[in-house]
Structures are given as C-alpha cells and as structure tokens.
Amino acid sequence: MSRQNVYFFGGGKADGNAGMKDLLGGKGANLAEMAGIGMPVPAGFTITTEVCTWFYENNGEYPPSLQEEVTGKLASIEDVMGAKFGDVNAPLLLSIRSGARVSMPGMMDTVLNLGLNDDTVKGLVKASGDERFAYDCYRRFIQMYGDVVLGMKPESKEGRDPFEEILEQKKVEAGVEQDVELSVSDLKDLIERYKAIIKSRLGIDFPVDPLEQLWKAIGAVFNSWHNDRAITYRRLNDIPGAWGTAVNVQAMVFGNLGDDSGTGVAFTRDPATGKNVFYGEYLMKAQGEDVVAGIRTPQPINRLQKGERDLPSLDVEMPGVYLSLEKIRSQLEDHYSDMQDLEFTIQNGRLWVLQTRTGKRTGFAAIRIAIDMVREGKISREEAIRRIDPEQLNQFLRPVFDPNGKKKAIAEGNLLATGINAGPGGATGKVVFHAEDAEEWARRGEKIILVRIETSPEDIRGMSVAEGILTSAGGATSHAALVGRQMGKVCVVGANTLKIDYRNRTIEAEGKTINEGDFISIDGMTGEVFSGQIETRPSEVLQVLIDKTLEAGDSETYRDYEELMNWADDIRRMGVRANADRPDQSAHAIAFGAEGIGLCRTEHMFFEGDRIDYFRQMILAPDESGRKKALEKLLPMQRSDFRGIFEIMGERPVTIRTLDPPLHEFLPHEDKEIEALARMMGIKVAIIKEKIESLKESNPMLGHRGCRLGIVYPEITEMQARAVFEAACDVVMDGGDPHPEIMIPLVGSLSELKLQEEIVRRVADEVQKEKGVNLEFLVGTMIEIPRAALTADEIASTAEFFSFGTNDLTQTTFGLSRDDASKFLGDYLAKGIWDADPFQKLDRQGVGSLVRIGIEKGRETKPDLKIGICGEHGGEPSSIEFCEKSGMDYVSCSPFRVPIARLAAAQAAMENVNE
Amino acid sequence: MSRQNVYFFGGGKADGNAGMKDLLGGKGANLAEMAGIGMPVPAGFTITTEVCTWFYENNGEYPPSLQEEVTGKLASIEDVMGAKFGDVNAPLLLSIRSGARVSMPGMMDTVLNLGLNDDTVKGLVKASGDERFAYDCYRRFIQMYGDVVLGMKPESKEGRDPFEEILEQKKVEAGVEQDVELSVSDLKDLIERYKAIIKSRLGIDFPVDPLEQLWKAIGAVFNSWHNDRAITYRRLNDIPGAWGTAVNVQAMVFGNLGDDSGTGVAFTRDPATGKNVFYGEYLMKAQGEDVVAGIRTPQPINRLQKGERDLPSLDVEMPGVYLSLEKIRSQLEDHYSDMQDLEFTIQNGRLWVLQTRTGKRTGFAAIRIAIDMVREGKISREEAIRRIDPEQLNQFLRPVFDPNGKKKAIAEGNLLATGINAGPGGATGKVVFHAEDAEEWARRGEKIILVRIETSPEDIRGMSVAEGILTSAGGATSHAALVGRQMGKVCVVGANTLKIDYRNRTIEAEGKTINEGDFISIDGMTGEVFSGQIETRPSEVLQVLIDKTLEAGDSETYRDYEELMNWADDIRRMGVRANADRPDQSAHAIAFGAEGIGLCRTEHMFFEGDRIDYFRQMILAPDESGRKKALEKLLPMQRSDFRGIFEIMGERPVTIRTLDPPLHEFLPHEDKEIEALARMMGIKVAIIKEKIESLKESNPMLGHRGCRLGIVYPEITEMQARAVFEAACDVVMDGGDPHPEIMIPLVGSLSELKLQEEIVRRVADEVQKEKGVNLEFLVGTMIEIPRAALTADEIASTAEFFSFGTNDLTQTTFGLSRDDASKFLGDYLAKGIWDADPFQKLDRQGVGSLVRIGIEKGRETKPDLKIGICGEHGGEPSSIEFCEKSGMDYVSCSPFRVPIARLAAAQAAMENVNE
User: What is the DSSP string of B414-462?
Assistant: First the structure.
C-alpha cells in the first residue's frame, strides 16, 4: 500500500502522471498528465485503485488517513477554482467518476453536479443567471444520486426507474412532450417529488450536506466495481477483478454560466486535410453536448477557418482566450507529438481544458500529418510509418473531380453551397434522404449520395453503401464527420445554406429544388456541393503513376505519397510483388512499386477474343492429338502475352502459374451459346452437352483442377511452358533479361510436382536449344492444400520456391467454400466464432499453423528456399504482419494494394524487430 | 572376400542355407535350403555375389581359385545326378541362371540345356527316345546362347531377332504356322542355319566344348547385372548396384525322358478349401508347362482327390514315387510350418523337386489352414492371426455365386462390364432404375438390382430393398458404396463402360441392351456384371449369426470363424465399434462382435416414411417458430429410433452424431416432386423453388453443413439432444443402462463445439430433471477438418472424446472431392502418385500427420482423452494398423466389416509390440 491515497491535479501541476495508470486508472493518470504539463484542467483529485482493493478487503471501510487526505485535496480544488464547496453564492460543484486501468465504458457509475442542495442551487442561479438551468442541474443530480448512491431501483423486474416514472407523469400533467419544455416551477415540483419518493421508499431525507454527498458517492463508485455489468464486462474482456477502480473527484465547469461562457472542440491540425492549421468550433453559452448535437451551428475558432462564411470567430470575439488556446495547441503537440483533439470550456471568461486525446483523422490527414511531423522534427520516420493505417492509403487513390468539370459546373451556376470538408475525394450520385432507401438503392446498383440534416448511429449502414455523405447541420466533429472520416467516405458536413425537407424529399438552395433521385456532386476536399454530375478523374497519385497526366513535381499529394513509400521501402524486409495477368496490369504493378509478379494466372488469357474458341476446341477434342492441334493455335497467343509481360517487367521475376481452374469453367452453359459453339465447331449439340455433363463436378473446388489437369493432360503444361520459354528467349534475343518462375498449382505431393517439373524443364531445354539462348528461370509450387504444407520437406527437394495460396488453404483448412460461406458468415461473426472473415484476414491459429509447418519443413530441406504468399491475404496488413513473422521473403497482392502492402510490410518489419 | 566362392547343393546336403541370401542370392539360398533339408533337388552350385563384385572390380576377370572350385563342384553334380557333362550317351545338361538378393524377374539372363552339341544331342535322343524333343532342345539352346552369351542382336533398331527371323522363314518354307509343327529335319536344318549366321556375323564357330559353353555363360550372366533393363529396374526399386548377382548352375531334369518320366505340381493342403489333404496334379511324359497349359488333362496325384473321375492317379501308377512325395510333403510342412506349393519332375523313375514356395490359397483355405496348424501344434495363435489377410474374412460372410454358374455365364458371353467391387457377395435380380420403383417392385416380391448412375440419400429406401446395387459412376467410397457396405448389400460401383439411360430405362454394354425388368447378376467380390441370372449361396457364418437358420455347432466354417475371432479378441488392444443408424443395423453390429456404435448418423432417420415431409416443413418454415413446430413432430420419431437402438445395444456406448448434411439434400429436385410437396404443405411452388435456389451451393462439401447447421439453427440440435436423452431416460426407467455419446460434426474451433455442447448439456439437464433419471453420457466431437486437428488442444478442453472423420479429413487434406476424384484417380494410380485410393487406405503421410497432430494436441490437454475413428478407414486393415500405432482407443466401421476390423486390430497390436 503506497503511503499516498489521494493524488491532486490542477493549477498547472499534478501529483501523478500518465505512467501511473495502474494506480490512478486511465482517466486519473491522463488528467494528472494534462495538469502536469500546464493545461488548465478543472482541478480535482484521484483516490487510488489501492484504496479500492483496501475497501473490498476491509468490508467497505477506508484506510484511516483517507478522510484527512480528501479534506486536504478538496481545499486545494477550492483554491484553484476560486469557489467553495457548499457555498451558497457561487458553489463549487463536483463530478465523481470511476476510472480503471483500462477503459470500461459505461460499466461503472458516475455522479455529476454534486454539492447541490436547496441552498447552493440558489448560488448556481446567481452564477449562471439561468434559473431553469440551475434547477435542471439540481433535478438531474437528485435523480443520479438516487440511482447510483441511494440505490433506488424499479419496484419490479418489469417496472421503470422511479424517477423516470415521476418525470413522465409530470410531463403528462404539464402537457409537454420534451424534458426541455418543463418550466422552472415544473422542475421545482419534480425536485420535491423526487425527495418525497426517496423518503417514502428509503425512510431517509435526501442528504443536504455536500460532504456527506461526496463520501457516499465515493463509496458508491467503489461498490460499482462489483456490479453485475462490470463483472460480466471484465469476464468477457479478461480484466482481473483484483485491479480495482480509482475514483476521480473533479470540479465541474459550465460553458453556459453567462455571456462570457462557452464550450468548444478543437483539433491541433485540420483532421480532414491534415494541414497544419488550428481547427475547431465553439458555441457561446452552451454545454459540450450542444456542439456535437448539431442543433445550433457552431462557430469557427479562427478567421482562417471561417472562410467566406458570415460567422463570428473566437479569435475575434475573445482574443485572450483564443491566445491561450493557441498556446495550449502547441504545448499539446510538443508534448504528445501527435495531432490532438481537445474539448474546452470557457467559464466566465476563463478557459478550461476538459479532455485531450489523439485526434481521429482521415487517411489523407494521417499521412500529411505524419510526414509534416517528420519534417518538423517531432517524430522519426519509423514513427510516421507506424502511425498510418495502411488502408488509409486508399484515400490517396480515390477519384477527385476533374478541375474543368468543376469550373464548368460553377460557370453554369450549379454550386449549391459550401460546407465543411470532412472526407476527401469527389463523389457524384443520386440524392437519397433515408438510410434504408440508401441501402435499397445501392442494392439495385445505383450510386447514391446520402443527404441528411444530421446523421445518427441508425444511419450507419446507409452511410456505408453511399458514394458520399452530405449534411446541412453539424460541424467538423459531428457524427456524420466522425463516421464519414472513419469509413473513408467522401463527406461534406454543415452545408447550412441547404434547406433539406424530409417530407417532400427535396433540397432547396440557391433558388433551386433538388428532388430525391436527382444527381448531386460533393467535393470532400473543398466542401463544395453541386447540382448535377461532375466527371471524376483519378486521384493525383494515379494521375502521376498511371495516367501520366500530371508531373510528380506538380502534386503535393503525390510528393507526400512518394516520400512515405520511400521511407517504407527503406524499412521493410519483405519484397512486395503484384498479382497481374496481363501487360497493362503489369504496368500498373510497376507503377505502384511492385518488385515482380507473384502470380500471373495464365487461364485469364484464354478468355480473350477468339482464344476461348480454341480453348473449347481443346476441351472438346476426343483425343490427345485433337487437343494438341487446338493447343498449337493457342501457343502463339500465349507467347505474345508473356512476351508483353516480360518486356514490361524487365529483369523483375514473373511467377507464372500453369492452368488452374477446372475445364468446365471454360464451357458455355446456356443452350443458345452451346448451339453457337456446336455450329462453329461443326459438331453436334449433343456431344457438347455430353461433354459438359461429363465434366460436371459436385465440388469443383476439390475437383479436377490445378496440377491434376496437367497430369492428365501433360500437353497443356507443355504448351504453356513452351509459350513462356519461347517468349522469354525472344525477349533475351532483343536484349531483355526476363526471369520467369513457373509455378505448379494445387500440388499435394512431391510426385505431382516432379511429373510437372519434368515437363517444364524438358521444354525449357528444348526451347533454349532451338533458340540458342540461356535462360535463368525457377520451377516452384503453390502450397495451397494442407497436404502440401504437411509434406513440404519432400516437396522442397524439387521446388525452387514456395508460394502460399492462402485462399485455397483457408478453404481446405476450414472445410469452407468461399462461395458458400456467406450463408453463415454473419452468424459466425455475430457469435464470435470468428473475429474476422478468414478469407480477408489470415487465420493465424489454423491456416497459420499450416503455413508455419510448410515453411519450417521446406527450409529443413532447403534452408534458403524462397517463400512468398499470393492469396488475397498478401494485401491485408494483419496477414502481412504474419508473413513477416513467419519468415516469408515476399508478399504478392493486386496492383492497387501494392502501396498498402509496402507500408504494412514496413510496419511488420519494425514490429518484428521490436519483439 | 569369403574364402569360398562356390556353394554346392544336392544329394541331400548343401554348403549354404536360406539365411545366406546376401551371398548366394535368393534363388541360390532357397535351393541350398531345400537340398539341406533332404529334398531331392537337382544338384548344382552357386557362384557367390562376391564373385560378381570381384568380376566388376577386376575388368571381367575371376578370382584365381574360381576355376578349380567350379571344376570340383561340377564333378559333385555329376556324382549326384549319375550323368557326365559332355557325355555322348546320357549327357548331363545344365541351366545357368542369375539370382540376386531380391527377385528381379526377367531382368537378367538365363541359359538352358547347356552342354549340347552335335554329339551330345545324340545322347539326349537316346535317353529320351524322342528325336524331335532332343533337336528342339538343341535348337533352343543355340538360340538362347546366341542371344545371351554371343550377343546376337537385330541388325537395326527396327529389325527382328536374327534367330526368330530364320525361324519364321523356315516355317514359311515348311508351310506350317506353329513351331511345334516343324519336323526333326526342319529342326536340324534350323540348327545349321543358326550356326551359319553366327559364323557369318561374328566370324566364329558355335562353341562345341561344353566347358567353354559353361564359362562363357557364367560371364554372360554376370554381365547381365549391368544391362539397361536391370539398371532401370534397380533404380525404380531402390536396389543398390553394388549388391551384384549370384550365378546358379544346376543340373537339368526332364519329365519327358521316356515312359517312367513325368512332371507335376502339388499343394501340401487343398488350396481352395484348406482341408489337410495332399492335393496335386501330374502328367507322365511331359514337361512342366504341359501341366499348366491345359492341353492335356492332368491326373490327380491320389485317389482321394480323384473322386468319381475316371483317371489314373500317381499313388496307383508309381507308388514308390508317390510315397517319396508324401514324405516330402510332411517334411516341407514340418520345415516351413505353412502350406507349400511344389513343382516336381520324375526323370526315369527318379523324383526331383524343382521348387517349393508358400502356396496361394482362398480366404476360406487361409483361415482353415491357419486354425488347423494351430491345432496341430505347428504354429502359435499369434502366427495364425498374422497369416490371414483380414479381407479374406469377407469370404466367410458373403453370399457368393455358384462358381460353375459364373463359368457358364462367362462362356455364354454374358459378362457386361467390370467395376469396383464395393460390397462383397453375389446378387441376381431384375434391373430397376429408380429407388421408388425398387420399393414398389420389392413390395410385390421381385428380387431387384437397383441400377443408378449414382445414388443419393433419396435412394436409401430403394437401396435397402434391393438385392444388389450397381452404379456406373462413383468410386469405392461413393454414396452407393458406403451405404451398400453398411447395409451389407452386394454392390458394384463405377462400372463406367455401362451406358445407363434413365429416360429409355436401358443399359447399353458390350453391344447388348438390358431393359428394365431384365435379370442381371453382379459379383461384389470381383466387380463383374453379368446379364442373366446366376445362382447364389448364403454363407454359413451369416446363417448362424444373422439368419439364425443354422446352429453354430452344425457348421465347421462357423466354428473356425468363431475360434479365429476369439483369438483376435484376446490379442487386440483397440476396441471395435460399428457405424449403425437403425435398430436392425445395431443388431447386426452386435452379431459381428461390435462393442458399441461409433457413428449413428441421425439424418438417415429423416428419410423414412413421412418424416421427410416434416423435415422439409422444417426447412421451408419462414422462421424459428415454424421450424420448432416441425421439429416437434419429428421429436417422437427420433426418440423411438434411439430407444430401439439403446435397447439393442444394452450398456454398450452409442455415439450419435447431430445433423450433418446440408439442408438442400433433403429437398426434392424434380418439378413433379416439388409440386406434390407444395400441394401437401399448402404453399406456392415458387416459394419452394426459391428456397431450393437459395440453398444451392457451389461446393456443398465445404458448405453449410455439420455443426454450422446447429449453430445457425440451434433448435435442430436441441430437438436431437432431447430425442436422445428422452429415449435414454425411458430405457433407464425400464431397467436399461444406455450410454449415449453425443458427437458434434465438422467442428473447426473450440467455440463452435462449445456453442453446441452448451445446448446438449442444457437439454440433458432439463430432460434428466423432467424424468428424474441420472444418465451417464459424453459430449465429444468429430475431428474431420484440418483446423480441428491443428487446434485440438483447445477443442479437447471441452470435448470428452474425439472421433476422427477421415473421409472428410482426406477430402480437405488433399483438397479432393470424393465424388469427383474418379475423373483422375486412374491417372494418379497409374502414374504412381498415389499407391492406393486415399479414400480406401488412409494416407499416413498427409492425413496421418494431421491425425497424429490431433491426437498429440488433444492428449496434451486431456491425457486420457478417448479417441477413435469413424471414417471408412476404420474397417480397412492398413488404416487400422495406423490407428493402433497412433494410439487410438477404438475403430468404428460398417457392421459387416467388424470381423475384419477385429482381426486387423489384433494384427496391428502384435505388429506394434514387435516394433
């Protein structure tokens, strides 16, 4: 037991700090930290978690010294706040809150406005000049105290909270519907009725002594550590009961105590764009919830942010307070080395900071802030890399409006309004006003913009299917802005000149009426809202990398992207390749920084143009010689595809997988198509149908595919190998340096690989002799069924590389078809059987075990065996972390995910070193 | 290098013995062994493998002492045989044969009749009294010697053997077609031409000196160790080249040297019935091949065997020789303690034994011989168990075709096809193509064979009334094969040359058309399919155990079976259970000695009578309450099934698996059926069709099945648990002692098992309270997907037992659908990728690894975890051996395979101890 039971904070100093979470709980430690660095935090003190333990070990008694310590610290609060607890003129009011080591949101109890009684409430009336506010505080205090401290419960299981019951009754009597419509006398009457029911139920008077209130509230919070909700929550989250909770007692401040009071929220940088500008909103004569609720439109904290809007700003209205806030801003960034989100209250002209935490931001902002902070010397490159969620990079790739399109729209008078730019990107879609409609419209393939006055949690599914989100109320910290940012949606909020009419389903603005279903366009970078459609164009990054319509030097965004990618490339250990089947995809892969192709699916080439006809001819041939004839026609086509890919990929390795899907996937299924095919091939419909029938499979996933095709029809592998090697030799003869890596799919035993490898090597020898060229190439295998992983030691004796096909490996390890899993995926996620869709996030326990077994066994035989992954997981950050930990050499993913993989690989490399 | 290079055998003694295979080769060691135990083996000697090594290390030179040793041993041969090498009156002829440590059949060279020349051939004429025979021997000798020793080869790659060319030409000139039609002068002419071509090609005369012939032949045999064929064979069979071959030089004996010469083959016991009688055939004035060729009808060696046939017998014709043979018979059985098969020749009244080896026998014979030999004190019970191939027990259990009936059918050209022998026995009946028709035909007393391309669960009732089941598709573990075996049906599957046409109701095969209602006969022992009827016989064992139409005491066969089973039961460690779904199957299981039920598939119960209607109602219900209503109707039905099973099984454990197959398997597929269902349920056809559509799966094997059903529809598990526990309680109240073991299928993670286990235990508690009964029961899981094995440590924290479902585990480990594997199974077996169908014989390397991982991890958590297997592998001897080695507690298989499993388990237990 530490000698000190109570830790004070406030007045620019604190007994504790952020490192003392075990003793002070998370909240207490953070308050101490803020106070310690000079934040004007409302003063308070924290009773330690050790007192909680003592309390439980001693039947609800407190340590002997506690009373004295509390009394002392309470006096310090009074000093800092300049108000007395129980004072009848300007009373100090307190909040009493729990605070465990880890957050247990809503599980334990809280009491606010403590210190009010029939006398002090009058002091609050005086101080606030708002009688209704003061009595409402008092009414709420009694209700909260009654519930939490006195334990007033419903009379029966089905019953309601007794205070709520009285409140409802009162509203009926007063003929009003909302709490806020109750008058001062209504509230006073309620207070009396509350006291009366406490008396009649418990036989006691409501305690009027503030100190008695305080001690009882402290005891109630300690007791709430062991309430049912808290116990269940701890069990579910593996939190030890022995930890206990701390109790935080803190002065209350009010932003509605008169004309020189107010409240606001600010970000130390712009959370949407990441720009290094102070950004925030406030309301005078308001409480915290008013800013978020979106009923009144908040004001910008400075002129910069105000822009063209005709609103007052804090720097103008209260320059002194604004200056303090600016100072706090830089103090916070210096201290936390990250963008902070802070809540502040101005009480009678005095600034208080209530909370500060790392601010949520868009992907765009995240990257810009991280890079800027490196440039500012605030953080290291590694730290910058660590801070960015790789998925946020997607926001750099999202389409933007075509500048000319936007100019034209403005010229045509289509600019409807300018709101707050809450989620970058440009989006065009049909106006829909209700979340449910949004879901339905999206289901039938419509692109929609969800337009709301304000959003609420019920709208989340509708928001997730929308191209963009637009609100007329609410600020940068409104629900719409927060959620939109989190989802990475294009989002404009607070476009308050729009008149949104839910009943008629219209928007009125600039004299125009937009109906549901009409097109609008929103620019999440600028906050502009347009009627009609505006053409989008690729993001600046894509314009530089893919379209080459923009010079790297002309795009700040691109330069940020490039810088970040360079840092990531310096840090990562694993290679990053792309899955690409065609020359154009290969070009994209390189643009995104792929160092090779990890999976080229040769079958995709068979669907183009008239190739499918020859391929079908091959399938329908009655014998090997017929098949060979058809394959001969396919040979030059595949060869030219490979040539194209080799030319683009230069000396980078290109992993080419031999034919994988079952043959029936290539045959037509509809009568009309079958008839056309029969005519073209000059054979009977019945014969085609018979072939289709004979190729049908009960479980195609587990059927005649992969190397099983090449084993039954070696001529297919032979043709493919020939196409690869002829193309490679041709490229060499033209001065190129291709590095093909032939990959055999669905291998389950060494002998399967050997049979295919022999064909490949024989053809390679033949072609090299014919062309007089020496090639460097590898022959390897996919590891995508459990048996391959389990016999990897044998397989590695022939394979020159392994590539884990974790899509199939997941299917077989789970006995789970990717195509059918949706039937119960929802139930499985809801019931917590899976914490994520195993096809999205690699299952480390099951599939991961097999991957590790495969790697271990493979390297037993060949210590330097090259190993990669080419399943969808190769582009998913958590799976990439697993690949790093298991010692893979590279990951391969779709070209557009290559930047994500590069960043994730860098994070994984740092993570792995740190362990 | 050993001091002795040449080992003599003959005259009742030998320098070597059977233990000297490394030095003398397999053939030489066996000849020495036979001679050593007094067999009248034609005398000879073996030049050791060490000489071969020396020969290769010294450029084809021999060790210095070799010539002297050979000369000495040759003299010994002459002594024993009473004939001189090179003698012009009755010349000793020699065979020169290779003989390596392990048999390399046909890979190396042999020379026969060595010692003949223009002079000695005349001696052979005198001795045999058969000029044609003598000159044919000479002609063959020159040809063989020319090929092997002189290296006469075809002139070009496409050319023919020069001697064969001359022979063909001679036959043309002589106007004959067969070699045997050539006259003595033809042969003499041939000999001259042979010599001439040798002279013209090689410039040498054919060597006339027998000793020169001998030494050159010895050298040729040593050289043949390094011919291409032999090198390839050794590479394929992992035989080291350093081993070398021995050379066996042995006197030739002739069974056609006059009226007191002959040759024969004998078995020391009857190889068909196993009876302890001397059994054999011989021909006078004949060579070995004449007995086998079947041109002349061989004579029985004794009167006993002659029976009613009007033939001479050896015991009458040559009583002295027969007496010697009888003595040899008992000598051989005393020495080898097993039934022997021997070849003998009588040359001029003197008996020679050429070869003896363990005799092949039928399953019946194998068992009878083993048991008799135990009774005779020749072998131990363990040895008896070890000697019987468990599959041979099938011959004790299955009704079989009358052998003569089958011969006749083949002679008449009625063999239609040969498929896979999936359910042993013989069955004859009328062809029926549809399960419903099968039921109807059976009801009116017809014996039918159900003929399907493939069967599905809907066909079960039709299958159960059929005499036999025949399919054209599917393999040894297809639905038809599985269910057929379990039902004890005669079953042939995968007879893929049959064209089954459901529309015209015909089978086309071998140019015949079989119509519905025509008779066919299928032999489940051989896979043969015949048109027409063939009479069958029931097995005596079945008559005793199942039909109870025969007293155990009246059947010698049954007593043998019983004795063997008792011995096996004494030896085995693992328990043997049966897979049985119904009371009647449970009764069979017990009759065959099952100690419990290892797998009761509850879904099969849903197909009987009107249950399928309620089950479909459950599937089609729009919500949980609708499903519950339908399940309530199924509850009493399942309860009564379980009750029946518990009553029969007594206190033996009964493992009941909760619902496993995907729901779509229960819905109808044809329009007519769907319409009928719609009428019955009073709902729209469209709704049923929509449901069917929504339940369709791309890969049903990997779809919504197993515990995934019970997790999405907990009410199904609940009903099934209730049915089990109510039935068990009822049986307890009637004085029984049931032991249900509830088994959850397709579990892949602990949480799945837990969710289902909670339901089962809750229902168990409820039912026990309601009934006031205490039950002993277990809740466990199948381990049938890789993830379950890989996370078995976690799963074992809840599971009270594991049962390996190796059918599904094989499918997922290989990524291989049981239903689709037939498309490439043949290629895979032919190319040696698999040495057996992995669905028949457990793949130890892949699937076995997972089983071992699962057992190891499971027992890490629960050291005494009960573990069994309930896949088809549970009845397959090699897989049972694996189960024993991996430490399983029991195997479970179809009732009719229980005896096989008992025997195989005993063998495995001995094997495991020996290791």
Answer: -EEEE-EEEE-SEEEEEEE-SHHHHHHHHHTT--EEEEESS--GGGHHH
